[in-house]
Amino acid sequence: AHTLYVELDSGRVVIELAPSFAPRHVANILALAREGYYDGLAILRVQDNFVVQWGDPNAEDPAQRKPIQKAARTLPAEFTRPNTADLRFTRLPDRDGYAADVGFSEGFPAARDFGSGRAWMAHCYGALGVGRDNDVNSGGGTELYVVTGHAPRQLDQNITLAGRVLQGMELLSSLPRGTGALGFYERAEQRVPIRRVRVAADLPEGERSAIEVLRTDTDTYTALIESRRNRRDEWYKHPAGHIDLCSVPIPVRAIR
Which residues are bridge partners to 161 per DSSP? Predict the structure, then answer.
């Protein structure tokens, strides 16, 4: 119910949404997908070592932009959420320069601060964010982006994060880079069409992507973290003894 399929000419990108962190934005993104808003839009921006962003090429022209039926165009920002007892959190053992405490919540890389009582998702590779203007409440899900480069953690708590890519990152990270400012495509023919976006639960089972994702609240994942902190295979001569939040992989595999 919280899984999106973004269909490109090159294949399917599978995205898991995060209602625990951005409930209003997730609900709005699902509503936009169900009313067909994303169908026929385009990838407008591919900035090297940063993000891939898609939306309506005519969004700035009220006379030409694609209409919205029942969903909202903008929403109040959801940069953080309360760090309450119901937030399941698997803590990393190492310090982080961007937050007092980092780890994983329901599979999503996340951070929290006990002083402010807030928690938030982190801008790791594959994170799905909601584009906005300078006004923090100017986003809503009509423009979305995926982090395709080195983790831009300076964006944490400045943009609403709404999910992560589970499968199909290679389809986004290999796109031609935009030649305009900030990686925007300068000509219409350069844009990559979004054929359609669907909610997985709305499709027949035979049309869904069958995948498994390793849970981050398990002993198996704890062992994976340690294996990454201290690499002991023959090639490594000096175990690092440290792991960065965005350097811990989330194993995903297809079910054959």
Answer: 129
Whole-model pTM: value is 0.96
Residue pair 191/185 in contact (Cβ under 8 Å)? The answer is: yes
d(CA 139, CA 160) in angstroms, rounded, equals 8
Going by C-beta distance under 8 Å and a sequence separation of 6 or more, which residues neighbour residue 63? none
b/e code 79-99 from CB counts within 10 Å (16+ = b): bbbebeeeeebbebeeebebb
Pair 161, 15: CB distance under 8 Å: no
| Average pLDDT of adjacent 10-residue blocks, the chain of 256 residues | 98 98 98 98 98 97 95 98 95 94 97 97 98 97 97 98 98 97 97 98 97 96 94 92 94 92
Distance from C-alpha of 178 to C-alpha of 233, rounded to nearest angstrom: 39
**Which pLDDT score, from 0 to 100, does residue 256 have?**
80
